[in-house]
Amino acid sequence: MEDIARQHIQHKIGLFSASNIVIANMVGAGIFTTSGLLMTGLSNPWLLIILWVTGGIIALCGALAYAELGAAMPQAGGEYIFLSRLYSPLFGFLSGWVSFVAGFSAPIAASAIGFSEYLFRAFPGLIQTGNPGQHLDKIIAIAIILLFTLIHLHGLKFGSKIQNYLTIMKVVVIAVLIVAGLSFGKGDLSHFSQGTPAVLNFSTFKTMGLSLMWIMFAYSGWNASTYIGSEIKDPVRNIPRSLLYGTGLVMIMYVLLNIVFVYATSPQEMKDVISIGGLTVRNLWGSSMEFAFSLLIAFALFSSLSAFIIIGPRVYYSMAQDGYFFKFAAKIHPRYHVPSAAIIMQAVIAVIMALSGTFDQILTYMGFSLGIFPILAVAGVFKLRAREVHKRIIKGFPLHLLLYLFFGVLMLSLSYLERPVESSIALVTALTGIPVFYYFKKN
């Protein structure tokens, strides 16, 4: 085996591609699948919009914090690097362990399942009650996971080109849906005044906490370019820019897109609908356009799935290089210069995820898992400044840090009370990493 110390991942990604990875990582299954599920609990259009704005502000605050962390520590690995350097290797390992089990593999599975949902909306005859192919959604999801794993095994340069095209297509689809929907769609502004008035009690706050956690899953990816810091050209300059440009653009798109959802569809009709984008297009322009847009959205979800497949293995690669993960995960393919073993390992976990759990269970499990360690990383900015090793000062300190920490802790607490089973499984996932860490440390 080639000496790990001599292996390296090459700097190939510029600002445009890095920003695209942030956008692609954020805009995926979340925005196209959660609003109908959210309306089931909230039953109020304005509360839905307010929570999407709040989620965007939280994500932007997190991106500001990570911009400073990424500029100071521009290595591949994201939170794993930040927490290992700022706290201890144990915290870094646990964040990487959660990323391995839930942070990347589960969103890959969710994106693949989301693709199946939209594909079936475009071709409803594919799946019917009593049809032997009623599990076709799982089969299609697994096939998509394997296809994109194969693509990214053939190198980052090739994979990033595919990524750029998919991201551009996805942004164009969303932009057309927003502009054409508000300009020419057959919607109804009275939908905004329908639904149940919000009653602010503890039960409502728990529902809002869970809803915000699902929304933050849709925003997850605002920290994406920090996971591939060692592969970005001029990382001190381009990591912060990619985070802020990507997150800011996505926040605007999400809020406008949810306005279109409500404009097109009444709150009652939105409830429990996963493929909300397809339903929106049908209400705006009819069933013929529903077919076309559902198909476009289905393929647009490839972009986020592809981004997760790019980013996740870089975390495992960094952990393995430090001796806190399986050694084969640090193996770089001699021809394609990618962590091929880590990419394959992630695909196996994603396939298992796709075969287990309902969509909302996976969503809750992912949301809680993804909310834990960013809180520690954002708090680490205070330690970073105390050490005076920062390379980029972000204005507004410490307001953006305090806002993120407050909402992060509040969201997880309320979500745990609302969905204790899925949240407990997420906590157990993190805690099981402790004995695994000491096993690797001992060996």
Please tell me about this protein's structure.
By secondary structure, the chain is mainly α. The protein is built from 18 helices and no strands. The protein has helices spanning 15-26, 29-42, 45-72, 79-86, 89-103, 105-122, 136-152, 156-184, 202-219, 235-264, 267-270, 276-285, 287-321, 340-354, 359-387, 399-418, 420-431, 433-442. It is globular.
Overall 3D geometry?
globular
Secondary structure: helix percent: over 70%
Q: How large is the radius of gyration?
A: 21 Å
The average pLDDT score comes to 82
Beta content comes to under 5%
The count of β-strands is: 0
Number of helices: 18
Question: Notable features of this structure?
Answer:
443 residues, mainly alpha, 18 helices, 73% helix
Can you give me a brief rundown of this structure?
The chain is mainly alpha-helical and 443 residues long. 73% of the residues lie in helices and 0% in strands. Residues 1-9 and 129-133 have low confidence and may be disordered.
Annotate the secondary structure layout:
Elements: H1 15-26, H2 29-42, H3 45-72, H4 79-86, H5 89-103, H6 105-122, H7 136-152, H8 156-184, H9 202-219, H10 235-264, H11 267-270, H12 276-285, H13 287-321, H14 340-354, H15 359-387, H16 399-418, H17 420-431, H18 433-442
Helix pairs in contact: 1-8, 1-10, 1-13, 2-6, 2-9, 3-9, 3-10, 3-15, 3-16, 4-5, 4-15, 5-13, 5-15, 5-17, 5-18, 6-7, 6-13, 6-14, 6-15, 7-13, 7-14, 8-10, 8-13, 9-15, 9-16, 10-12, 12-13, 13-14, 15-16, 15-17, 16-17
